[in-house]
């Protein structure tokens, strides 16, 4: 198990461990949530920024879906969230627990299993509207999985829940966002920029807000206030 130290703000550092030997028993491939993705870095730093559409996390209850190694959720805890729940599939929970422990955030951060599209799994997390903010990073890969994600989001979101997703913009990102739009979600781009991480040529990263169907009567400007 390797680890990385991440500077979220000049005064806030987090340590995240990554897994090296956790594989899908069906495909034989490593779970993509086993390591830290650049989208998680981008979203975490956006959360800590003074962007015009900045989210005040102070005292908020936050859920991270498809958390992987959990950087955005851990950053939310450091930025003042009163309660954070990191969720992912069972094989990835040990690294999430390790990252909560190593950063000394066990008083505010919980780790729970959650499979997208599963009502039984969702019932163990909490009721509709229990969380003020839902975070996701690099979850827009497979349209079928995003369809399941949409059903889970509908079960989680209450009036005023803010759903924020960071991702690297790829050729299939639009298809995944269109799938969510077909389920009634509004999609608002909050930020977009080309970022060059060490060792790459630069990619476009974006932060989107997903406006739940039960907020469809609200003006987008109100949701971004």
From TrEMBL:
CDD domains: AdoMet_MTases (cd02440). InterPro entries: Methyltransf_16, SAM-dependent_MTases_sf. Gene3D superfamilies: Vaccinia Virus protein VP39. Signal peptide: none annotated. PANTHER family: HEPATOCELLULAR CARCINOMA-ASSOCIATED ANTIGEN, OS04G0645500 PROTEIN. This is Uncharacterized protein.
């Amino acid at each position: 198990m390797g680890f990385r130290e991440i500077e979220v703000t000049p005064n806030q550092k987090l340590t995240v461990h990554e897994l090296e030997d956790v594989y899908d028993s069906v495909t034989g491939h490593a779970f993509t949530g086993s390591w830290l993705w650049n989208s998680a870095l981008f979203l975490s730093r956006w959360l800590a920024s003074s962007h015009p559409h900045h989210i005040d996390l102070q005292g908020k209850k936050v859920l991270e879906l498809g958390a992987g190694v959990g950087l955005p959720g851990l950053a939310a805890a450091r930025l003042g969230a009163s309660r954070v729940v990191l969720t992912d599939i069972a094989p990835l929970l040990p690294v999430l627990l390790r990252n909560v422990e190593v950063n000394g955030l066990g008083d505010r951060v919980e780790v729970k299993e959650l499979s997208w599209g599963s009502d039984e799994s969702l019932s163990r997390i909490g009721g509709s509207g229990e969380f003020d903010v839902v975070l996701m990073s690099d979850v827009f890969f497979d349209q079928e999985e995003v369809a399941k994600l949409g059903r889970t989001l509908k079960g989680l979101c209450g009036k005023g829940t803010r759903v924020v997703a960071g991702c690297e913009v790829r050729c299939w990102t639009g298809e995944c966002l269109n799938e969510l739009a077909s389920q009634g979600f509004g999609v608002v781009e909050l930020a977009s920029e080309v970022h060059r991480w060490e060792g790459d040529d630069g990619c476009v990263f974006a932060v989107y807000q997903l406006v739940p169907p039960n907020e469809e009567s609200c003006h987008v400007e109100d949701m971004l206030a």
